[in-house]
Amino acid sequence: MSDIAYVITGAGELTAVPAADTTAVKPGYAVVEVAFCGICGSDVESYRKGIPLPPSISGHEWGGTVISVGEGVESPAPGDRVSKTSAPSCGKCPLCRAGHHADCDRFSARAASSSPATHGAYTRFVQVPASTLVKLPDNVTDEQGALVEPATVALHGVRLRQPGLGGTALVFGLGVIGLFAVQLASLSGAVNVVAVDPDPVRRDAALGFGAVAAFAPDDPALQQRLMDLTDARGADVAYECSGQASVLTSAVPLMRNGGALVLIGAGMEPVQLVPALWLSKGLDVQTSLAHTRDEFDITVTLLSRGLLKTKGMTGTTVGLSRLPEVFADLAKKATSLKVLVDPRG
């Protein structure tokens, strides 16, 4: 069993901590050997700026193979390939009793800080509640298993506000979440998906995933092309996946009256806002936090049926021993493609 795990503990600090004991499996839990863990942009931002994160969030995009299960676990079984999900709602807290299961006090993304886990999946073996695992079909690869979580983040945001059949969607930020949002907007009826990112490699990727056009944020041709595509109406919906708070203002001239701006990326920088700009267009500004347990099943089905593509999303794969070096590099300059960690190597 692996004896260390890595946890972000401060600005520029990635600390090796003792890995949790996985030899004794708790009732209702499963031990999983991690195949791949993706390095999330929020992890890098936390490392760069010292933003506190619950230890369990350090390495939250992962998949692997179940090696043992505790008492009372009927599924998954040892040998099953799985991906990590969010926990089901408890059904008992005040919010669940009021029908707000996605906002469960105990098990929603908001409750991550109360997790007893001392680390995430920047390690070789993890022990997690079996109810937080989704099985992967044979035609979904281990690498795709590490992309299920960010894909579901995008799915949650697009489901909250869909472009509608024949609609036009803007996607700001073309990391993995943004590239999934491009595809999901098309699957949700958009005939025009326009992608925005300063990285030309990511813009090319977005075109490959179905965007009709891709621009740098400061490209003066962006607004004109969007107006040409929409008979001068503007976009029906914009998905902010970059974490850049400036999009709260820069997106406004690109939106139609009554359009929606969905905040999927977690912007952590202050920004000066003029709410009257939103009000003058009647914009619906909506936040999208993470995902719900049932949405992971949808994501896995879309991957299995080939409706969500992943080829070209990932780049370098590194072993666990290189993680401190890789985080230091990513903090200086983001890569165009997702970095995966293989703790087995």
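The record above closes out task 2.4. Task 2.5 opens with a second protein, given below.
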Amino acid sequence: MLKLLLKQFPGIQIDLIFGNRWGAEKVLEHSELKCNFVWIQVDETVLSKAMRLLSLRKKKYDHVFCPFDSSPTWFLASLCLFTKSDKTIHLPLSRGSLSTRLFWLILRNLLPNSRFIPILEKRSESLLNIDLLTDIIDEPVCGFDLLTTVGYVNEDIRDLIRGKRYIVIQPFARNGMETPKSWSPANFLSLIDEYQKKIPNIRIVLVGDKGDFNHCVASGIGSLKNVTNLIGETNFNQLCSVLKQAQLVIAHDSGVMHVANALQVPLLALYGPTDYHRTRPMAPTSEVLHSKNESWGEMRGFKISEDELTRKYPPYYCMSSISVEQVLSKSLAMINSTAASGNRLK
């Protein structure tokens, strides 16, 4: 989306407004896309948010874009302040509660210079964002360049990993918080054991957020032979360098997965209850395995949250329909395929 805007309007200034620090600034830090970052924390007081929004109003933006998943109610309501800015806003198609429908009805009638773009079902998040540009770009968009969506500085990782052949595994997700989209640690233990039997000269490298470290220690995965535990130990550049040189990356629907997909490294993504159509990896080097029990895709269209699903099902149940044998078979096939093509070490 940002690349298309800069192509259409060279030299424009883009401000990205965030409510949570999920790492977007790290993804763009070394990219050719130069943007400013504006933080309005979700837990700030109403007065603090109002002061920040009023300061933004002084910038007199030509256009304000509000993607579907980045626009809390308080920010949508604040758009009334930007009276002279054109606005493009994602409009949910689901009916929602009476109060939600009333809110959107009022918003559509009150906001001047606004276009409302419907959120299409079964469409990826990347393309949903590009949909917001439909009325202002000159050429049709059929896709986007995955190769340049992540900018990073390649770092020497020899001090982090011994040996040149390794598989990267993200055994946990959500920075230590409970989540229904994680595969069981017992499955990862069995999978790593099988790798060590079938590919004895390969190393396993674990990645993840700092909050996942204690789960890794408790599970015993980090103490296995030929396993390097980098959970919480890498900065963004190091993570990208580790992923880029891997024989294979195995990850949940998460930030690690999206980065590996953007880097176009061999990726096996494990999916369960999350919205596959919106968050699926689209690189030709990516493959997906689905856990298709009754929880499959329940989060589609944000109908239910991770926390609600965590309370609804036992731990790891949502991902339990993916077997160790499936992951082992698919991953070995991917490793052999990339080795045969010369893209990775044999």
